[in-house]
Amino acid sequence: MNSELTVQELTALMKKAAGVTVDAKDMERRLDTGFSEIGLDSLGLLGIVGELENSHGRALPTDAERCKTPREFLNLVNSSLMAGA
Amino acid sequence: MSSQPGRRSVITGIGVVAPNGTTTETFWKSTQAGTSVLDKVTREGCENLPLRIAGEVRGFEPADLIEETFLVQTDRFSHFAMAAADMAREDARLGRADTVDDPFAVGVVTAAGSGGGEFGQRELQKLWGQGSRFVGPYQSIAWFYAASTGQISIRGGFKGPCGVVASDEAGGLDALAHAAGAIRRGTDAVVVGAAEAPLAPYSVVCQLGYEELSASDDPARAYRPFTTGASGFVPAEGGAMLVVEEEAAARDRDVRARAVIAGHAATFTGASRWEQSREGLAQAIRGALQEAQCAPEEIDVVFADALGVPEADRAEALAIADVLGSGATRVPVTAPKTGIGRAYCGAPVLDTATAVLAMEHGLVPPTPNVFDVCHDLDLVTSRARPAELRTALVLSRGLMGSNAALVLRHGTDALS
């Protein structure tokens, strides 16, 4: 499970961890929209970080849960996963 | 914290999620008919526990009523509270348009006796089954007593005084007094009440140590207060939320004052010290009457606590007689909760909702499953009794020793 986190997977995690329904194609087009505007609160993002850490079997940087937008989050998570690959 | 004179609290909206009805209409229909819905416990994981009979809320579909973002981070007890709050707001016609200009004018108060046991158990099982990394972050809020107040506040955008009353089962009445206090100090409206979900394995196990819990496996005999067959109480889930408003603010919105919260008092006499609860309950009744400036003979109906433990039933019957009189001056007493069980903090709020509906319909609902009363009480049994009801008294006691009394007056008195 060292593959890159896709927008599709992120939307699936948002649904699972926080009950937030977002269309993946929709989010592709607005990766800089804030999580808060999308309806994902900080505990929801923390839950997503936990899910990713468990599925990848490794810790993510503590900054991951402080990301404000999907783009920021994807960049940070993917660079961290790539660095460890 | 100064009180402003003349600011009276009136009930303008009622929302109910109860074992005998998940709308206020069905709840009242079953309650006035005296239907008992006590039944075998069927909730998952509870089937083989020694608690056999309870009042379950069945046919409640939270996904139809509450947004998924709120559902994933809340326990069943908050689902009940959010759904009931929606109904109460709709009943009071308290919409976004009424609150968006001044969100600080509306507060939220709930009472809770046990918090979110089902959610908590699920996450604790992950902790011990898979490890701490598998515990979801919403565990940090979902199982706390305060969860329902917080979620109703966030969901409705209510930024006025918010609080949680954790004072035992009688806290359901104390929450209403807390709301009335906020209104006296200047808040226009408070969404207030209590709902509980104590029928999950962890929560049931926590209750098994209560000596007052009924061990009966017969739904018709498990909860029969004020009879020689009294053998404890049956727990229930559900509860009620009300919209309580400042009288003039309700009038300005052209909303009917369904009842006035006229007086309240609370006392404490110690856990399971039922004989002593006689004096504690009597003192609470006196305090509530005094605040309501209500003479004992003005009380037209009493909604009893009705624990179902002989010593506690005797104490309550004596407390009622001590303050309201006995013999020829007896007042009608009822305990509709014998048909649905005791929803802990939700129970006295359900009784308050019933008291308002009873005054509106001029009908004292009966006490299901209770027939041969062995105390000096005019307990209404078998069928509802028509009566002109202008003032009602609601009583509640908690297993840990809290006693509370609430005096309600009929709404039309308020606007005369």
List keywords for this structure.
heterodimer; A: 85 residues; Non-ribosomal Peptide Synthetase Peptidyl Carrier Protein, Chain A; globular; B: 416 residues; alpha/beta; Peroxisomal Thiolase, Chain A, domain 1; 2 domains; eleven-stranded mixed sheet; two-stranded antiparallel ribbon; 15 helices; Beta-ketoacyl_synthase (chain B); Ketosynthase chain-length factor (chain B); acyltransferase (chain B); transferase (chain B)
Q: Could you characterize what this model shows?
A:
The complex is a heterodimer of chains A (85) and B (416). With 85 residues, chain A is mainly alpha-helical. Chain A has one domain: ACP-like (Non-ribosomal Peptide Synthetase Peptidyl Carrier Protein, Chain A), CATH 1.10.1200.10. Helix content of chain A is 60%, strand content 0%. Chain A is built from five helices and no strands. Chain A has helices at 7-18, 24-29, 35-38, 42-56, 70-83. The termini of chain A are close together. The mean pLDDT of chain A is 92. Chain B has 416 residues and is α/β, with parallel strands linked by helices. Chain B has two domains: 9-252, Thiolase/Chalcone synthase (Peroxisomal Thiolase, Chain A, domain 1, 3-Layer(aba) Sandwich), CATH 3.40.47.10; 261-415, Peroxisomal Thiolase, Chain A, domain 1. Helix content of chain B is 35%, strand content 19%. Chain B is built from 15 helices and 15 strands. Chain B has helices at residues 24-33, 62-65, 68-71, 76-91, 96-99, 117-129, 139-142, 147-156, 171-184, 201-207, 247-252, 274-292, 310-324, 346-361, 411-415, and strands at 9-17, 39-40, 53-54, 106-111, 162-165, 189-196, 238-246, 259-268, 301-303, 332-334, 363-364, 378-379, 385-386, 391-397, 402-410. In chain B, the strands form three sheets. Chain B has an eleven-stranded mixed sheet with strand order 5-4-6-7-1-8-15-14-9-10-12, sandwiched between helices. A two-stranded antiparallel sheet of chain B has the order 2-3. Chain B has a two-stranded antiparallel ribbon with strand order 11-13. In chain B, α4 packs across α8 (147-156) and α12 (274-292) runs parallel beside α13. Chain B is globular, with a radius of gyration of 20 Å. Classes of the chains: A mainly alpha (85), B alpha/beta (416).
